[in-house]
Amino acid sequence: MSFTNVTIRFKLALIFVSVLSLGNSFSQSYKGVTGVRDTSYSTKSAFKYDVKLHPSIKIVPEFHFNSVKEKRNITYCETEKRKLNLDAFYNTEKANSKRIAIIIIHGGGWRTGSREQHYPMAQKLDSLGYVCFTPEYRLSTEALFPAAIYDIKAVIRWVRENATAYNFDPNKITVLGFSAGGEMASFMGTTGNMPLFEGTSCNLEAKSNANAVVDIDGTLSFVHPDGREGDDSKGISAGTYWFGYSKAENPKLWEAASPLSYVSAQTPPTLFVNSAVPWMHAGREDYIQVLDKNGIYSEVKEFEGAPHSFCLYEPWFDPTIQYIDHFLTKVFNK
């Protein structure tokens, strides 16, 4: 990592610490921490909206492969209030070498959505020889940023600690996410093993770095001019709920929470799979410039005309799986 990158990351880390510990002229709002699960975003609700413009789309159902075994509701971390769970999808067929692990993070604006939405993706990828994990994490109805970041870091550490049990290589862990999950996947890739974002509990003996990232329509920056996150003109935005501050109230926190702020020579190879919604790509080209400068491999796959929730439907689900498989095969020489 260059001296410049170290300096930038250090300054942003200091900003983040000062924002959380000292605050600013605006008090942090906990209005969105209702303790009540928000179910407004689901595959069915997204389909009901998207099918109006895309009448031929079909929801991808769960698969049932003889070679795919599942364990659901495995506790990966226990907070003061409750247990946090994940699901494991693993292949029973013998392999000549250790497999690649994929952690799949669901979307929903850091506030809604569920890991069950990506069971079909986990099952399909598992049938191709991967080991997949679908975790839950604390949403903004339960806890503000960076609680969700701490949770996914704990997931990566738990997954790495269980490499032998599920027969995968602990140095071949991919973090994949859709929408808000895509943003967090990229954040995992850019802040691996950074003490500031590790949290203080659960599986702390293992490393939290990702070895590859797949970002499916997740923003790279909360403050990029091409983005739209933080527009509270018609209602409180997802980002404002997550941070407890609007962008106007605390822009430095929004910047310090952006993956683009930390991309560096330490960032792993990254695949971007995008819809036709331009603001969901905010910061992508700037991000790739840093990867290119440091000789880090990346790919961009974009579906013309596709809605934001494209990866939940055919005709985009199968090619998305193919893009992921081809990318990881190249990165890990699978």
UniProtKB/TrEMBL annotation:
Top-rank lineage group of the source organism: Bacteria
Keywords: Hydrolase, Receptor, Signal
Pfam families tied to this protein: BD-FAE
Record protein name field: Alpha/beta hydrolase
GO molecular function: hydrolase activity
Coiled-coil parts of chain: none
All residue ranges annotated as the BD-FAE-like domain in the record: 90-274
Presence of the UniProt keyword Signal in the record: yes
Extent of the signal sequence: 1-27
Stored SUPFAM superfamilies: alpha/beta-Hydrolases
